[in-house]
Amino acid sequence: MTRVSTWTPPEAEERGWTIERHILEGQRSSPGATGELTSLLQQITLCSKIIASRVNMAGLAGDLGLTGQTNVQGEEVQKLDDFANQTLIRTLSRGGHCCMLGSEEEEDPIPVPSGYPSGKYAVLFDPLDGSSNIDVNVSIGTIFSVHERVSEAGGAGELRDLLQGGTRQVAAGYVIYGSSTMLVYTTGAGVHGFSLDPAVGEFFLSHLDIKIPERGKIYSVNEGNSARWEQPVRSWVQWLKSDAPEQKRPYSHRYVGSLVADFHRTLLKGGVFAYPADNKNRRGKLRLMYEAAPIAMLAEQAGGAASTGVEPIMGLEPENLHQRVPLYVGSKQDVRDAEGFLGTND
Ligand code: FDP
Prior knowledge:
Elements: H1 19-28, H2 36-61, E1 66-70, E2 76-78, H3 79-93, E3 98-103, E4 110-111, E5 121-129, E6 140-148, H4 159-162, E7 169-177, E8 181-186, E9 192-197, E10 202-207, E11 218-220, H5 231-241, E12 252-253, H6 259-269, E13 272-275, H7 288-301, E14 305-307, E15 327-330, H8 332-342
Parallel strand pairs: 3-5, 11-12, 11-13
Antiparallel strand pairs: 1-2, 3-4, 5-6, 6-7, 7-8, 8-9, 9-10, 13-15, 14-15
The chain binds 2,6-di-O-phosphono-beta-D-fructofuranose.
């Protein structure tokens, strides 16, 4: 169950709040909060600053290019992918608040090393999403998802601590390394965005209680795959492009190719991002646990929707850590339209 908090978002005059203060305020008004989630989120924030600094310097520091290895998904590992992955693993596995980690880059769950305490949370992350954009200075990001453990407190974490459905996330968020670095997160009390001031080395509240417009005017999909799509997906995209000014069509098209960047735009401006299933990727390309579920929690918390095209992403019960899923996410009305074409919305 999504955790209920009585906390309400701060007023506009609190826009200069640091992320630390914002998280702490959330903790103070959550009955029964122990401070562990606060501390875990602070560790994630620290990792994102370290990764942001390395991303910004990558061209100079010789950190662009491949490591020569392939990951569990069969993709070539970039040096920055590896750096981001190691930063998150080192920090979170020894930080005292996690019992188990899951990384998009690692085949197996990552346990807490012996000698370190086993904490209350299980965290999943995609350390550097949008890898194909690393070398060309296009926005990339880190995505994270936090669950409360279901195995016995204090003992070693188990796979089931990670393999929980989207509605059981207690926090989710992403960091976008773009023209500025932003961290956007939710703990079930709205979606809030913070911008990194690199001179101070601190994230400050810049986007308060973000809400996705009910309907947008942008669609975002890799149309290079259209020959492989099922007919309903093609019909939907054709409909979005058709000339019907009275219904505010055609939509504009934008596609960065980094989920974090495409979703960030969708969150702020509305519209829909999709990565449909096709006859090459029968279950879609994106990963449920590292990408679709956290993005779905953010979308719903911002008043939007996230669907496989036939059912809500948040309702899916995961079968394995690396499972893929089709994704339609963004403005509620735009996602409903997609579902209408895919046959679920009459
Ligand atoms: P990438 O392969 O570059 O890491 O899931 C990964 C992802 O990027 C998403 O960030 C992005 O939305 C999508 O794949 C892009 O896939 P295509 O190149 O097939 O469009």
